[in-house]
Amino acid sequence: MRPWVTVLALLAALAAATARADVFSSPSPVFQTADRVVLDKGERRLTLYRDGRELKNYRVSLGLRPTGHKQQEGDYRTPEGSYRLTRRNPDSDFFLSIQVSYPDTKDLDAARKSGVSPGGLIMIHGLPNIMKYSRDRYLTTDWTDGCIALSNEDMLEVWLLTRPDTPIEITP
How many CB atoms lie within 10 A of CB 73? Predict the structure, then answer.
């Protein structure tokens, strides 16, 4: 994606996010960053916390086979456990992306013992830049290869409210 397209997309999403009344109605400032992220896979909810207090929560879509911990590449599962938010990519194939530190050493050991690749590149991201389906389908069904997907407006907020190395706990 060209840099100016990314800038325009960010500005459009920021305008849409700030137009939502709930963004600035929270008792905590909107740009107070999260110190912990929790994904409840069963509830399809990603929640940002600061000092034990909920900042925001979002509805998410998961991998095509969301039940259970990711075991290997291509199983379409979203991992479970304690990880960190690492690399950020403003030029991904999706609207923004933040990498989750899967696989960790425990995941690598389990995959090695099973003789499989653990997979990787688990991301929190927005919608595809080139959509094959309706926006509604992406927002209401599990469709990723194991990633955590949000609306573009919500992804922009997560991008702004998290920092590199923020812990993320992914629960069943």
Answer: 15
